[in-house]
Structure formats: structure tokens, C-alpha cells
Amino acid sequence: MITRVRAMKPQELAAAAFRLREIGIVLALLVVVVFFSIRADNFLTASNWQDIAQNVSIVVVVAVGETFVILTRNIDLSVGSIVGLSGYLVAATLAHHPGVPIEVVALISIAVGVGLGLVNGLLVAVARIPAIIATLATLAIFRGIHAEITGGKNITAYQLPDRFLSLAASKPLGFPALAWIAVVVAVIGAATLRFVPWARDFYAIGSNPDAARFAGIAAARRVITAFVLSGALAGLGGFLFASRFPTLDSGAATGFELTVITAVVIGGVNVFGGSGTILGVVLGAVLVATISNGFTLLRLDEFWKIFFNGFAIVAAVAIDALVTRRLQEALRRRRVALVSSQPQAAEA
Fold first, then answer.
1. Helices (H), 170-269
2. What does each of the 348 residues of the chain score in pLDDT, given as a tens digit?
3. 283, 25 Cβ separation under 8 angstroms
């Protein structure tokens, strides 16, 4: 009698792990909502949730681009500086040239992000500088350029045209316009990773860079592409940031990269590359934004927001490492079981 071994395939194991992670985020979000609804009187009001939706929209847009980079086993620490610089350039353009169409200004902001993302990509893929070092340097460089451009001055909402300020305030079908933009970006990002061949290469490169190169994947080109996409979406995030927070100076979006990376890591994107979903990133961003909003309503010190982001990153990385070890152990047991069943099949 032959004993058949029923084991999940590697893809099925990974998919099950992602589903559990995403379900866990949803459950955590429910707990957070219940907690803050009890502690803060105005937490469940429609206006407060509109505010959360607007804030999380910017995080989602930038986090989708960050996801592309982390999937390749790299990281982009400069996204906050790109958001701040491109956002200021948007505001400065409209302040001095109020007749410029909003769509043109958005394209300018994205183009700035593309250029800065290309710089990051070339430093990592061509100059072979570790991503954490390269983007830490460009974080400071881009912020320095931003400070030089501002010259110590700021731009206020009074200097910007109403048609731009109304973007963040508008609510098509009762949903903030910024949130609609984030939904579109997230859907396109998810579809790209799911169906576009060159985007699937991000997973292969992150899982095993050497094997990806041996398989004929243009790893350097793909890494540059990931950084360019991250820069482009950070540029778009700068445009949205300027609309949402129209008073900008050299400190705009300082520390924003920590919020983005927290959302991505909590959302289940493995910091060691090769695994993650856009759905998880969106859920992670919503969780981070909801907790931040709750902290604000409870008037907790800014320290606790920063502490939560740091703690969440450490916890998420620890969970990723644990899940990875469990998956590897499950796959090892599966291989052993299959090998041990082959002699029995031969005897039968």
C-alpha cells in the first residue's frame, strides 16, 4: 500500500502566509478602531474618517513605489525628501504662475521624481553602492537642494490658486479626491506586479539576485526601473502633499519616509526582498494612518508616534523572519517526505 503525501506547493504556502498576514492586519485594524472609538469621542465621525482617508492616500501612493524597490532587496530612504522637494516646486510654480494647468504641474512633479529616482537607481545598480547608503546620502542631498531653493522662505495657502486648493477638499461621490487617486495607483500597481512580465522580475531579483542573473534577467535595469517608479510616485505624492498641506517650507515631509516604510513592512513586504502584495501595503498604510490619527485625537506626545513606527518595523521584520523560517522548514519536510515515499512507490 502506498502512502500518498499531500503537501502544499511552495506557491500555495507563500499565498497562505500572505492571506494570514493580511487577515491579521484587518483584525488589528478592527481592534484599533474599537479602542480609539472608546477613548476618543470624535474618532468615529465622518469628518475624522475623511481626514484619515486624505492622509493615508499620500502614504499609499508613495508606498506603492517603495514596494517595487523593496521587492528587489533594496530600500529607498529618500522618498520623504523627494515628496518635500517636488511638493515645494509644485507650490512655487503655482504661486508664481497661477495660470499653469493643474495637470501640467502634476506632470512636472512626477518628472522631478523620475529624475531623482533615476539618480538613486544609477547609484545602486551601476555604481554598486548599497541602497541603504546611497539613498541615505540622497535623502540628505535632496533635502539640501530643497533648503537651497526655498532660501529660508515658505509658501502659504494664500499664494496658491483656489482650483489647486480645492483638489484636496473635493469629494467625488462622497469620497476624497486624493483617496480616489490612491485607489487608482494601488490598482495599477497591483495589476503591474501581477501581470506585467518585467515587474514580476522584481520578485525574482529579490528572492535570489544571482539566480535571476543566471536566468537572463537584466537585474541592473530592473533595479533602476524600480527606483525610477519609486521616484515617480514620490513625485506624485509631493503634488498631493502640496494640495493637502499647502503651507510648505524646507522641512516639508521631513520623516515621511519612516511612515512609508512602516506601512510597507507592516503590510507584509519582506525587507529581504522577493515577497509582498500591494493589498497588504494598503492595509498597512490604513493601519498606520488610523493609529496616528488616534494618537493625535488623544493628544499624545509626538514621541509615541515615532516610537510606534520604529517598534512596528522591528516587530514586522521579526514576524517576516519567523514566517520565512517556518516556510523553509515546511518545504524541507515536504522534500524529505517526497524522497522517502519514492522507494515505497518503487517496491509497489
1. 177-195, 197-207, 209-214, 219-244, 256-266
2. 334 334 455 555 555 656 677 888 888 899 999 999 999 889 999 999 999 999 999 999 999 999 999 999 999 999 999 999 999 999 999 999 989 999 999 999 999 999 999 999 999 999 999 999 999 999 999 999 999 999 888 999 999 999 898 998 899 988 899 999 999 999 999 999 999 999 999 999 998 888 888 888 999 999 999 999 999 999 999 999 999 999 899 899 999 999 999 999 999 898 888 888 999 999 999 999 999 999 999 988 878 878 887 888 788 777 767 766 776 676 677 667 666 666 555 555
3. yes
Show the cell assigned to 69.
524597490
Cell of 170: 473635493
Coil, strand or helix at 248: strand
Whether residue 250 contacts residue 296, with contact meaning beta carbons closer than 8 Å, is answered with no
Sketch the domain layout of the chain as residue ranges.
24-34+43-319
Taking the whole predicted model, whether its pTM rises above 0.70 is answered as yes
Residue type for 343, please?
P
Cβ atoms of 83 and 230 closer than 8 Å: no
Continuous segment of H or E residues that includes residue 295: helix 278-297
- How distant, in Å, are the alpha carbons of 45, 180, 215, 320 from that of 208? 47, 36, 11, 17
Q: Give the amino acid at 89.
A: L
Q: Do residues 255 and 21 make contact, with C-beta atoms less than 8 angstroms apart? A: no
Closest CA to 178 of 163, 187, 167, 162: 167
The C-alpha atoms of residue 259 and residue 244 are separated, in whole angstroms, by 17
DSSP letters for 2-45 = --------HHHHHHHHHHHHHHHHHHHHHHHHHHHHHH-TTTTS
Looking at domain 24-34+43-319, its CATH architecture is Orthogonal Bundle (1.10)
Angle at 124 (CA atoms; ends 235, 135), nearest 5 degrees: 50
DSSP percent split of the chain into helix, strand, coil, nearest 5: 80, 0, 20
